[in-house]
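[INFO] parsing input record for Acyl-CoA-binding domain-containing protein
[DEBUG] input buffer:
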Amino acid sequence: MGSDGQNWYLDLTYDQWVPLSVSGPRPAARYKHAAATVDGKLYIIGGSRNGRYLSDIQVFDLKSLTWSTIKLNSGVLPATSGHNMIMWENKLLFLAGHAKDVSDTVTVRFIDLQSYKCGVIETFGKLPVARGGQSITLFGSKLIMFGGEDRHRRLLNDISVLDLETMSWSTVETTQTSPAPRFDHTAALHADRYLLILGGCSHSIFFNDLHVLDLETMEWSQPQLQGDLVSPRAGHVGVTLGDNWYIIGGGDNKSGVPETLVLNMTKLVVSVLATVKGRDPLASEGLSVSSASLDGEKFLVSFGGYNGKYNNEVYVMRPKPRDVLHPKILQSPVAEVAAASVRAAYALTKPEKLDLPKREDSNFKEVHVDSAQQNLSAEISALGEQKKVLESSIADVRAENANLRTNLDDVNATHANLSKELQSVQGQLISERSRCAKLEAQIGELQKMLESMKSIEEEVQALRREKSELERDMGRASSVQKQGSGGAWKWITG
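[DEBUG] output buffer:
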């Protein structure tokens, strides 16, 4: 798109990705870099290209649509890929990731955006093992790190927390079933309480599952998503605006995911927001997405990625404002029903731990009973509808199980028939081998006969030679005899 003036974003159509026409040179194409937007500028650090890690710092000005490169005044930034970056106070913090020279534990580095100084921040406590492809989520003044892959390719599913006030690491013990170890997933924080983990991969499996960690009870759950299908993917990215989680890109090593999804984290409903065609940069693995605010308008900004080729395009989307639905946990006397609704949505195994303290203020006492009863009836009706949906889903699953059993029986029958055919073929093979052995024995005897025939033929040839010699000797003797007798006669008669 063109850049007529510096208010180009006000003319964007809602919920559509648009490539930006960039002025001047662009940075090298890449993927698995780290990105963050600060004051209308997109910061890109590191990444990977053609198996080589990058260490440059690129800045894209969303007003002037121009790229520039940051030269550090002090410190060295190592070439890194698969790391994360967040803005904290006046510094960009970036941590973890793969590099050629890496320590045994996660390193936290910083770039001061005022002095352009770079360095390592000393951390304390139980330092997590070094890794790449992890997710890092800001929760108040803490960073929550989940999963990843260490430099020995060991997959992880642990939770570590870095307190940014004390720069101290701690590990978290969770209950219930944790997500399978994975990397290149994405994570989000909802309602300042729930950590959501979506997708990712192991070394052979790509996931499309959603896992939720209640940060108050430290219990994992795996709720079912409703709405549009989420295909298995890794290397995708996500960004939250209010209750909505926008999920872009990713792939399964065969093709990129062309759909941009929006997940309403309160309702747990997924919708397809936009779809791109072909090998679009937005259907890439290892791209980045950030949210930016320009004149009070929120935008999504995407950069880079790999989908058969490395990309360095900048795309923006102006998401349409959506309704914000917050759980009604702090209202009373409907609080218990609303909390039950939230627990049902997130399928927690110990819902009683979700109860929150009730507020002892004047507004709490002014709630009318009639209104509460109406709300209660509405909640009961909504739960009834959810029950119908669940019953329908259970019926579908049972029908699918019946079909699978039928298919399994067919497979078993086919296996039995194939086993019989295999036994028959094995019997034929045994008889053929026996016949081959007999033929080989006959061939051996014939070869011996041929060898004996050669010796007989040689004897015949020798006899023929002896016969010829005898015949020649007899001929010579006969001629000598004739010559002798003729001479004597002539002598007598002469």
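[INFO] DSSP finds three helices and 26 strands in the chain.
[INFO] shutting down worker
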